[in-house]
Amino acid sequence: MRAGSEALALDIGLESIEEGTDPLDRTRIVSLEAGEMAFLYEPFQTFFAKTGLVIEPYEDTRISGEDLKIFERLLLVTMRVVESRPDQWEEFTELQYHPQEVKIFTTLFRSELLQKLSGLLELTRTAIAAQRVLFFYGD
To answer: At the top level of its lineage, which domain of life is listed (predicted)?
Structure first.
C-alpha cells in the first residue's frame, strides 16, 4: 500500500497452538490494509452470506472445517478478478466529512494484492491440511 488511509489493518495467520498472549502463529502472517480491505468487502460479504462469519478489521474471526474450503474457493474467484484488473487502480476507502466531504482513495497494485491473496490461499490450504484454525486478528 503506498497511499491513502492506513488506519484499518487485519493480520491473518494460523491460530497459535502455543500458550501465551499472541493468538497468531507468527510463522506466516498476511496483513491486509485499508484499500485491500475495501476491495475485499464484497467477497467477505459473500463469505458471510455463506457461513455467517464476519471478516472485518474490528473483530477477531476464526475459520475452520468446511468454512475453510468455502473461503479457499472464494479466494480463487477473487484472485481471478484481481488478475483482470489493471496494474494499479484507485480503491475508495473512506469518506471524510470535515471540514468538507471528500472521498479518500488508496492506490492498489495488482501484483501486491495478488501476492497477499496467494499468501492467504497458502495459509488457508495449510489450515485445511493440518486441521488448524485460520485466525483473523482484528484491531
So the answer is: Bacteria
